[in-house]
Amino acid sequence: MYKTILCAIDATSEGKEVLAKASKLSKLCNSKLIVIHVIPYSMLPRDYQKELTEKISPKIDKLASAFGVPKKNQIIKVGKPYDHICMLAEKRKADLIILGTHSKKGIQALLGSTANGVVNYAKCDVSLVKIC
Length: 132
Known about the structure:
It is a single chain. By secondary structure, this protein is α/β, with parallel strands linked by helices. It has one domain: Rossmann fold (3-Layer(aba) Sandwich). Helix content is 48%, strand content 24%. The chain has helices spanning 13-29, 46-66, 81-91, 106-110, 113-121; strands spanning 4-8, 32-39, 74-78, 96-102, 125-131. A five-stranded parallel beta sheet has the order 3-2-1-4-5, sandwiched between helices. Strand 1, helix 1 (13-29) and strand 2 (32-39) form a beta-alpha-beta unit. Helix 3 (81-91) packs parallel to helix 5. The radius of gyration is 14 Å and the shape is globular. The chain starts with a strand and ends with a strand. The relative contact order is 0.21. The model has no long low-confidence stretch (mean pLDDT 91).
């Protein structure tokens, strides 16, 4: 069904919940799982971006490694999350992007800016995991 799944996460329990579901689907489909975390600060000095990346890297690695995602399939970027998620999905030929979204009320509240951007710009299937 899906050959490559891209899972966008943050380094929280919510990210773990999203990754757990992506990992389960990846195993069911016997597909490659790639994890991306995007630091949403593109206007910061490069040195500070590098510092943020180095700080979050061990947390993402610990989370992704717990689900068997090798280091080469763990990506950390700085910038607009939906841009990087969609670009990586195209580059790695992902069939499916999985990411979390918070649900409040109505469709506008359901889709945050990242989820909305990914849904509108991705060239592959997108699955949203509802975070309560």
